[in-house]
Design goal:
Number of helices of chain A: 6
CATH class of chain B: Mainly Alpha
Largest sheet of chain A: 7 strands, parallel
Number of strands of chain A: 7
Oligomer: heterodimer
Strand order of the largest sheet of chain A: 3-2-1-4-5-6-7
Radius of gyration of chain B: 12 Å
CATH architecture of chain B: Orthogonal Bundle
CATH topology of chain A: Rossmann fold
Structural class of chain A: alpha/beta
Shape of chain A: globular
Number of domains of chain B: 1
CATH superfamily of chain A: NAD(P)-binding Rossmann-like Domain
Structural class of chain B: mainly alpha
Largest interface: A-B, 9 and 10 residues
Number of strands of chain B: 0
Number of domains of chain A: 1
Distance between the termini of chain A: 39 Å
Helix content of chain B: 40-55%
CATH topology of chain B: Non-ribosomal Peptide Synthetase Peptidyl Carrier Protein, Chain A
């Protein structure tokens, strides 16, 4: 019988991340998570770290904790991300840098450090987050979509480099879900976006978890370097 | 500290042996080539070796280091050339912590 699975999820304070914590705890996994701010909830089997995902030392501390506490890491879900809606001409450099730091560098650091812990066991599942904003070329989201496009490339190449180590790397590109991330987006913009999907509705946390479940399965060992967009985008 | 690091490198090399067509011959001691001419390690072999060493340094010495850096890759004399150069490089990383 396999030991209890250990799952690391970034960006767990609220939204999809929080949902995924509960989802994988319910499946009997040990879950470790992080967010910039502390969480106002507690669940048995869950350990939380306050960390900036783009802070290399903070990422290493989390991985060291997992190594010394569990001796293994089976799954990494790189959920942490920030969005920014700005006209291209009005996008401050700071905003662009923050978006890339959190989305791309955060995912990169966690992928790299998690894979180091997964490699000796010759098993690991990494799931990154992309977005439908990239293939839809959504106006106002140039830097956000670009940061996620970079994650798409990183996922495809990391998948090849980590394959000999038994680690798969895939990505999911959710449609808009009614979370804080899109609360500031005007309703008509959101309606236009939904109309470009094959299935014209908001996504749900369950839709996202379903695809991640597939990527994490032991039986998905032959699935790597793939990206699945929800909603038929 | 140097002796501990050399011991860690040796243990990591020993752990690598079953994965290599021919085990690394460490009879030259510190001058044993690791990567480049005269070595049996390919690039993935070197990656695995480095990961094992990083893990052992952290577990045995309580210091988390990242061996590969811009500095390591661009050094005139590659830290990955021999056991001795790698041990020396790791010592310098730990001293900076």
């Amino acid at each position: 019988m396999r030991k209890q699975l250990v799952t690391l999820i970034t960006g767990t304070r609220k939204g999809i991340g929080k949902y995924l914590v509960k989802h994988y705890l319910q499946q009997g996994q040990q879950v470790v998570g992080c967010s910039r701010a502390p969480v106002d909830w507690h669940l048995p089997g869950y350990t939380h770290f306050c960390a900036d995902v783009a802070d290399e030392e903070a990422v290493r501390r989390i991985i060291t904790f997992i190594r010394t506490t569990y001796g293994q890491l089976d799954h990494l879900i790189n959920n942490a991300g920030i969005a920014s809606m700005n006209h291209f001409l009005l996008t401050p450099l700071d905003t662009a840098q923050n978006v890339f730091q959190t989305n791309l560098m955060g995912s990169f650091l966690f992928c790299r450090e998690a894979a180091k812990l997964m490699a000796p066991k010759q098993f690991g599942r990494i799931v990154n987050f992309t977005t439908v904003a990239t293939p839809l070329n959504l106006e106002g989201e140039a830097m956000y979509a670009a940061s996620k496009a970079a994650i798409l490339s990183m996922t495809a190449i990391a998948a090849r480099e980590l394959a000999p180590l038994g680690i798969t790397v895939n990505a999911i590109g959710p449609t808009p879900i009614e979370t804080d991330l899109i609360r500031s987006v005007p309703k008509d913009s959101m309606d236009r976006l939904l109309s470009r999907q094959a299935i014209k509705r908001f996504g749900t946390f369950e839709d996202v978890a379903n695809v991640i479940d597939f990527f994490l399965r032991k039986e998905s060992a032959f699935v790597t370097g793939q990206n699945i967009y929800l909603g038929g985008v | 500290m140097n002796q501990t690091i050399s011991q860690i490198i040796q243990t990591a090399i020993d752990a690598q042996a079953p994965l290599l067509p021919v085990p690394i011959d460490t009879s030259q001691g510190e001058a044993t080539p690791l990567f480049g001419p005269g070595s049996v390690l390919d690039s993935l072999g070197l990656v695995t070796l480095i990961l094992n060493i990083e893990e052992m340094v952290e577990m045995q010495m309580g210091v988390a280091i990242t061996i590969v850096s811009e500095k390591a890759m661009s050094a005139y004399r590659s830290p990955f050339a021999t056991i001795g150069s790698l041990a020396e490089f790791i010592t310098s990383l730990i001293q900076k912590k």
